Amino acid sequence: MREYNQKRHYYWPNRIFWERRVREEARRKAIEHLGSCCKRCGFSDLRALQIDHVFGGGTKHVRSTSWKVRYAEVLTDTTGKYQLLCANCNWIKKAENNENRKPTSAYVIEKLREKP
Fold first, then answer.
1. What does the pLDDT look like over 21-65, one tens digit per residue?
2. Which is higher by pLDDT, 69 or 17?
3. What are phi and psi of 50, to 5 degrees?
4. What are residue 86's DSSP bridge partners?
5. Whole domain around residue 10: which residue ranges?
6. Which of 73, 79, 90, 104 is most exposed, with the fewest beta carbons within 10 Å of its own?
7. What phi, psi does 66 have (nearest 5°)?
8. 108 vs 82: which has the higher pLDDT
9. Structural domain tally of the chain?
10. How far is 93 from 99, CA to CA, in rounded Å?
11. How far, CA to CA in Å, does 62 sit from each of 40, 73, 95, 98?
12. Share of the chain above pLDDT 90, in %
């Protein structure tokens, strides 16, 4: 039993490191495929760039598929349903299109003011 635990202790940290490296490489390829900069403002720092679903539905898609499948879909997509946005532009787009999961208090107050 002791021998098994030592091997497991050695094996798992290396596997986690390997998976992280593979995931980062897949993300980098997907970002390069989409143009390497934000479509709205031109920001190009990889740490803040996010793959956005042009027509919404990204949260549902992320929850239903693995990262391997998502990055493969981005790389093979020819319909233009993905775009690259920085984190700020992505949140602004979500607010403009009311894609937030819960309405914010400012949104609710604005809607109440619009009613006659």
1. 888 999 999 999 999 999 999 999 999 999 999 888 877 888 888
2. 69
3. -130, 145
4. 49
5. 2-114
6. 79
7. -85, 165
8. 82
9. 1
10. 8
11. 22, 12, 19, 18
12. 34
Report which of 28, 43, 20 is spatially closest to residue 75, judged by C-alpha positions. 28
Q: In the numeric block, which tokens belong to residue 64?
A: 């239903």
Q: How many CB atoms lie within 10 A of CB 42?
A: 10
Give the confidence band of 7 by pLDDT, cuts at 50, 70, 90: low
pLDDT of residue 12: 61
**Among 34, 46, 42, residue whose Cα is nearest residue 78:** 34
How many Cα atoms occupy the beta-carbon half-sphere of 75 within 13 Å? 13
Q: Where are the alpha helices (DSSP H) in 1-116?
A: 2-33, 58-64, 67-76, 87-96, 105-114
As a whole number of angstroms, the distance between CA 84 and CA 97 comes to 17
> Tokens at residue 28, please?
């980098």
Of 27, 29, 66, 67, residue with least CA distance to 50: 27
More confident residue, 37 or 96: 37
